[in-house]
Amino acid sequence: MFVLGLQGSPRKKGNSHYLLTRFLGECESRGARTEVIHMDGLDIGPCRELIVCEKKGFCPIKDEMEPHIYGLIRRADVVVLASPVFFYNVSAQAKILIDRCQMFWGRKYKLKLADPDAASRQGVLLAVGASGGKRLFEGVELTAKYFFDAISATFAESLTYKKVEAAGAIAEIAGVDADIKTAAGRVMAAMQNKPTLVFVSRKDACRSQMAAAFAKHIAGTDIRVLSAGIEPARDIDPLALDFMAQQGIDIKYRLPGAVDNLMAEKFTDGQPFQVVCLEPEVIPIPGAKTIFWDLPKPADPQSVASVGKQIQSRVDALVKTVRQQKRNI
Ligand SMILES: Cc1cc2nc3c(=O)[nH]c(=O)nc-3n(C[C@H](O)[C@H](O)[C@H](O)COP(=O)(O)O)c2cc1C
Q1: pLDDT on residue 193
Q2: Which of 87, 141, 173 to mutate for ligand 1's pocket (most ligand atoms within 8 Å of CB)?
Q3: String of DSSP letters for 220-272
Q4: Ligand 1 atom 29 nearest Cα
Q5: pLDDT 10s digits, 260-272
Q6: Which of 94, 163, 266, 268 could cysteine-pair with 90, CB 3.0–4.6 Å?
């Protein structure tokens, strides 16, 4: 499980930092891997409304957003947005990153491509403001709502605190740590205690990525689906991207994962897991129950369509079986 924190305050040891650090700590103590993007230090420019993303599905501005930050968002099981209230909205630093996620909005609503993680990705808002105004968090919450929708995340939790002004003052507010523990516990519980499917190939750039995307797309929240490569490639194979886009499934910005990293993470929590290996000659995870799909590595649009269709029908059958086994437990 990967939890991405987006830190919107320019204050290094401020109140948003306090909330985010504690929230991520709770997730880590429940087995998640976490990473923080400090939006204040990012070299990214604001959206220039070029509308390329809505027509072609990418942002032409060349900076850290593509592929690094878009890739992290796509990889995240949970995105935690932490921000102070600045003039009744998130900080400008956070708003720049959020506006650049119009790229995801364009792919989802204009190009009609579905993120395969849409059913399971969760969004969490952590916010603080100095005043006691009744409507203090309305702007921030609306922005978070539409941001999470654009990145295909369910708005799962919102923790907001009024009358917090000086850096670190949040630490004096009673009940904050308990709130965070409860919210993080709920978020993590939604991802745990489910059977896991792991698709492995040599590079995790084509067949295993297609299999994982089909499986996530149809399994929703019932099954956890991962993919990994024995020697992972840097990028997804464009043949796989195009074929999946024709099926309405968006795998752009996904990054091939490594079996070694999967082993280092707690990728299963005692629940049954099944490895599907697309390289017949190797046992990628020693001791794991492994089935082999001997399908050729596609080399052109015709072969990717044929292999992709075979993967899709095998994934359909496998997901049905895993669901059945889950019901029988
Ligand atoms: C530019 C700026 C605008 C602010 N606007 C608001 C506001 O509209 N309402 C409010 O209650 N607090 C406002 N504040 C106060 C901060 O939200 C508050 O101090 C918060 O605790 C800072 O969190 P941080 O330590 O994570 O940066 C503003 C502060 C700054 C610097």
Answers
A1: 86
A2: 87
A3: TTSSEEEEEESS--SS--HHHHHHHHHTTB--TT----BHHHHHHTT--SSS-
A4: 86
A5: 888 777 676 777 7
A6: 94
CA of 96 to the centre of ligand 1 (A): 17
The three-state secondary structure class of 181 is helix
Give the global pTM.
0.96
The secondary element (H helix, E strand) that includes residue 90 is none
Q: Where are the domains of the chain?
A: 2-189, 196-328
Two structure tokens written together for 172: 């004096």
Asked if the domains at 2-189 and 196-328 fall in one CATH topology, the answer is yes
Q: Which fold has domain 196-328?
A: Rossmann fold (3.40.50)
Distances (CA, A) of 41 to 38, 143, 180, 266: 6, 21, 26, 30
Q: Can you list the alpha helix ranges (DSSP code H) found in the chain?
A: 15-29, 52-56, 70-75, 92-100, 102-105, 138-150, 176-189, 207-219, 238-246, 259-264, 301-328
Are 229 and 200 in contact by the 8 Å Cβ rule? The answer is yes
Output the pLDDT for position 266.
67
Looking at domain 2-189, its CATH class is alpha beta
* Region of residue 235 (left: phi > 0; alpha: psi -120 to 50; beta: else): beta
- Centre of ligand 1 to C-alpha 7, Å, is 14
Question: What whole-number distance in Å separates Cα of residue 127 and Cα of residue 297?
Answer: 47
Residue nearest to atom 3 of ligand 1 (CA): 86
pLDDT tens-digit profile of 95-130?
Answer: 999 999 999 999 999 999 999 999 999 999 999 999
